[in-house]
Predict the 3D structure of the following.
Amino acid sequence: MNMLLVPFLFAMLFVFWIHPKLVRISLDKNIVDNPNSRKLQRKPIPVLGGVGVFFGIVAGIAAASFSIDCSALFVAVVAMIVMLYTGTTDDILDLSPWLRLAVEVSVALLLIYAGGYVIDDFHGLWGIGRLPDYAAVPLTVISMVGIINALNMIDGVDGLSSGLCIAASAMFGMMFYHVGDVPMAVLSAAVTGALIPFFLHNVFGSSSKMFIGDGGTYVMGVVMCVFVGRVLHNGSVCSEWSDSPSGLIAFALAVLSIPVFDTVRVMLMRIARGHSPFHPDKTHLHHLFIDMGFSHAATMLCIVLLDMSVVLCWWVMHRFSVSGDIRLYVVVGLGLAFTFLFYMYARMSQMRNTWFYRMMCRIGELSRMEKCQVFGRIRTVVDRF
């Protein structure tokens, strides 16, 4: 465990050091996210948070490389650089969705063919084992593009994407550490350490607040793709972590359940209305919580807890040696219930002003922790760093 403290601490300290500098650069160069009818902030906010997180990750890996062979992470870092450049350019120039999609597909192919991060084994789920390349490559590309866009699209309130990625990186990291996959454990530790300072500034900061931007969400998307590809490829050492290796698919889906299912729901709703699936609107799960009066921090906490509850259910089934296919069905069912069913029921309750909607609005009012003294004191401390 001591070997993971080095990348974790170096990444965290580096982001704490570089964050205020990036805030000043963003404001000086007007690299900000301006408010509009779709967005929730009321003033321009710097959007170079992803740059700081990326360099924090690299600093953590570099520090660990003095005692650990991290060469296996080279392709992952290259993929992160490509997506950081693409996302940051999009933050500044607003690139075409189809150009971004082309880059995402290219990065997915890079991870598959140069890095070996490919979903090519169902590990016995439904009696399916190793997949042929003609099935594995398209499945992996679709999955990776979906993950990248899911994390990008759910980034709508303070701390949500970073909070989900902190939890996801920690959970994947525990698995990699347990099975002895040291490079992936180092990457997990570095990502977790780099995200914590940004999370604190994003949630609690006032003068130090900065958004992670498309560059940051794309980098996090690549990291999650790397984790999923490492867990689910043929011959993965992660299969040793479970008495039922087929449960690995359910685990990977559980960790990212809320972003994935919420994005699927939003895209299907847009297509049903005759819009492009990339057409921005206010139909995400976090928009629902905001409409019910929840604060940004409470919205973030609720959604992260929903995601973690899916993982907890997977873990309980894992402890009781439930078969992999049952675990997958339960994870899918919970993901659909927390995104599709809950969203639809809440919106119908809103139109009818039912007791359920009034109760949720009351809870939302009570959740506004930004007004309490403790929150103010934390904000004062965070803004000083």
In short: The first strand starts at residue 32 and ends at 33. The chain has one domain: 2-384.
